[in-house]
Fold these 4 entries.
Entry 1:
Amino acid sequence: MNTKANILIVDDEEALCVGLQAYLELEGYSVGTARSAEEAMQLDLHEYDMILLDIMMDGMSGIEMATCLKQNNATAGIPIIFLTAKDSVDDMVSGLNLGADDYIAKPYSIKNVLARIEAVLRRAKPHQAKGIKCDRHSLNCTVDGQSIKLPRKEFELLALLMENPGRIFTREELLSRIWPDRTVVVDRSVDVHITRLRGKIGHYSQNIVTRSGYGYGWQN
């Protein structure tokens, strides 16, 4: 079964995390959990297509975490749905003004959560990649008409992914293609280059798809 999307649940209520994770996985989603904002911030958030985020948690609140994510260009595009027991109009407006994509008050029905997730994911489809091009002859990359300089390995990595839209390459495949004569190059090198690459191609960073524990691909 193809995974619909990779979702992170951040909530300090263990029973809620476990139950919601089970329901979403039955619906075909890949789901990770974190029991605090601090724990979530230690994860590679690029792996996730959406974050379900509780507002009221000990330590860093959901509002504070969301603020950090929206202020960072590398994570600003990750859709956020707030899950919270607070249901006042003021709380809803504050969350949406912050940049949240939706707001669901507890207690909630799983059907409602699923409908909201699907609606937000439809709105958050990656940018069409018409404005980004890689010319292997000149080793030149342009983003929305502007030329950008990429180290050769990053250029080769981007070009390979773009030439094979929809295909997910394992880290080992990428290593063998981009570093064929490697001596000491580990899987983590791929992750580092992907992170650097995402930081240089603007909103097209969303077109680089991560399959957790497997590898990377390109989605037009």
Entry 2:
Amino acid sequence: MKSNSKSGKFGRKKLKYTVSSALRIAVTALCLSTLIMLQGCATTEAIADGGSFGEIAAAVRTDLFGAEQEDTRQIQLALPVREGFEPVSDRFSYNALKTSEMREAYESIRKSIFLITPETDGSGRYVMKHARIPSSLDSTQIYIAKEAVLNDYPEAFWITGDYTVGNNLHDGNYITLYSEYSYEQIVSAFDLINAGTEEILAKIPDGASELERELIIHDALVDSIDYDSEAASDDNASVQAFSIYGALAHKKAVCSGYARAAKLLLNRVGIECRLVSGMSKDTGHMWNQVKIDGQWYNLDITWDDPITDGDVVYNRYSYFNITDEQINVDHEPGRSFDEMTLETAESGDYATADLYNFDLEECTATDANYYMMYAVHITATDTSNNAIITEKIKTLSRTGEEMFYIRFDESIDSATAEKWLTKNSGGKSSALGKSMVKSNNSGVGSRIKTCSLVRLATSENDVWSHVYAVRLIYA
């Protein structure tokens, strides 16, 4: 049996800072006074115009009057909608910010990520419009406000996460973010993203419940996306794999691409969804919290990658709407942003800085858990439960569905369950075999040739060690 393992790396953040405000102003003043003395009758306006002063004058002009970012283009995105469902603007990170000054910075940054200039920096990134920020904010608060915006707006796939902060006489304190793509490239990319989004939303039928909407989106992302292992191990990988661009346009992403695509899609059909950063299986990871029928659940689409056993593929839902207790078996959410120190924010250590979260919800409900709702529940390993499996197989044979799940009581150990269930798996002497014979002789539905099954867990410590997936193979 092969499990398609995925590493969980989800992003890079390089924290860059300009020279301190006081030093910049002092240098500006010195340059200005020197230039005026050298030029005699030169005026401030002449210096601002540049004239023949070259690079020094240009630097002075920037500090006095701000970078030449008037030439910006508005990135306007018309996200697809699914008629009959009202999208939600789920700004949970904004709501978690602690001060009005941080919210002010958030709004300024939010506007700036949709205003791109034609300028590039030394590494070829495109410069976004300066976002003015209150002078009272320290480096930690600036970083948190920036992260809040990127969490709430997964559609802004072009933003690299790198940023600089600075000060000039025109803009005051500001933060500058960067894009990996030009305006034209962003518009072209969004055509592909919208096509992928519309394809998934079109699968949702009219009147679908919140759970049904979530399940369709989960399955569509699992089925369509290949995990980008190469990007996961490359610190210089493109932002594509870490964003909705990779997930929805190119169908190849790492965990943050899955999680951000899930948030975008769920929000589009009226479902609240949050991003969670942390560790899973000894590496950085990102997943979601989702609100279904008023209750919060953990959802990790990345780790619901199908299992293959020979030529047979088994879908799984081991991380679909699970509790905190269940996900904490192999996931560790990062700390609260309230615990972030100034040293961490200024260190440039993105591996550490990434492992923080805005306020998370407590997830204790099991009502919308996939296996609890849909798996055949076996309470005893005797013939009394055979009829339950028989009816399930009959139902599936009528529709041609191929898979179902069996959930044993946790009191039944795996050895007993497998002895009852898998002897000559699919053969006439097994419990499943007898059920299939009975179903096929009933004269209803498609004829089932055999079946195969697999245990979804890889160890006794797994949350769903008592769940098996069954695939019916039709004649």
Entry 3:
Amino acid sequence: MEQMLSIVIPVLNEQDSLKILYEKIMEQVGDKYLYEILFIDDGSTDQSSQIVKELREGDKNVHLIVFRKNFGKAKALQTGFRNAQGDIIITMDADLQDDPCEIPRFVEKINEGYDLVSGWKQNRHDPLEKRLPSKLFNKVTEKLSGVHLHDFNCGFKAYRREVVENIDIYGELHRYIPVLADRQGFRITEIVVHHHKREYGKSKYGFERYLRGLFDSFTVAFLGRFYDRPMYFFGRIGLVLSMLGGIICLYMTYLWATKQPIGTRPLLQLGVLLLIVGVQMISIGFIGDMIVDATYHSRYNEGHVKEKL
């Protein structure tokens, strides 16, 4: 059976590039694949939605989903994933920096047996103030996650359908989709893709993007290691703090037993504080394990299952 492609494109004020992008996509998929193109309008204030509606008049494989306001790229991608009907889902930006001529290469790589293929903008045509933080972000993410990719931040990716059905993204987690997929055992690789200079519009991201990305990197690192075993994280911290507090309190008890004054010593307060915080951390670990146990069956999916006979 012929494969169907779903091309998911988040859109935010890209009216000047949409028709050109559509034409370039059609050159690659029009007579080669079954396809659908999903434009997710993330609260555009220009004519982006109207242009997509015009495209749909000539091609019923073009679809449009319009948000009431700007919810962010992660929400747009998640919505696209939940509405895509294809066997292979390809995501790309609407600003013409991603080249649709790469689509057949993504499909070919998926058909080699990979579940997720990520683009690598090896020769990136962006200002230095965007390239340097991106390189730092990629290095930090690689170290924290253990997933070896050169460019986590590239939005040009291809997914087997099973991948998008078994991951949930929110906040800024769209940058960490390979990490989330790797956690479930999907096969991941990357290919070098052409990257073009932006010709229309302007970038929608500022410095705040990197701050949010930093916090989300902590979230992904935590979820990757302790998602289903929070006690391993909180329990370790609690155990260390409790042991330190216990040693200090034992020492204070010895001083008290030898008739030395301890009531005004800051070390006594530190020991008690460490004991209390340590017990609290262990308690948080227990509560976390209870939540995991209570919700595991309702959230269980078979994304980790490769084959059933």
Entry 4:
Amino acid sequence: MNIGSKIRDLRVQKSLTQEELANRTELSKSFISQLERDLTSPSIATLQDILQSLGTNLADFFNETCEEQVVFSKDDYFEKTDPELKNKIEWIIPNAQKNMMEPILMTLEAGGSCFPDNPHEGEEFGYILSGSLTLHLGAHSYRVKKGESFYFTPDKKHYISTKSGATLIWVSSPPSF
């Protein structure tokens, strides 16, 4: 592990100059510079002081666990096609059902629909990327077209349908897909 580069990364994240970090830790700017270039090593006490000034501690600083994936590509998506309902659903954040919300990319063929969903707790949001659809919410129907979005609390039976085809992003919290 390169302690110096990790300290430099933390300092930059906190928008501090070497001089500002040196002042906060009562060290010299040249010591901070040498430390960040791995030309010198700090004592444990000095390292603790530096880390405290950067808002962390020894345990977190030396924790080498892999960070959770943040960016996902098409190769990461999980896809399900339903020829009967003429739709394709892509979970664009894999394993999102464990999260507070679950965004999906949905493509409806002409004449397609999305499975009916019974009333439940939470919130639902959609953004139409292409085409248009009808949002059926209880006894009401709403036309939604490209560039428009919808949001509702799913306390009524709901589903979407299209005559011409549509692609949309749908976010459900908590996950219900």
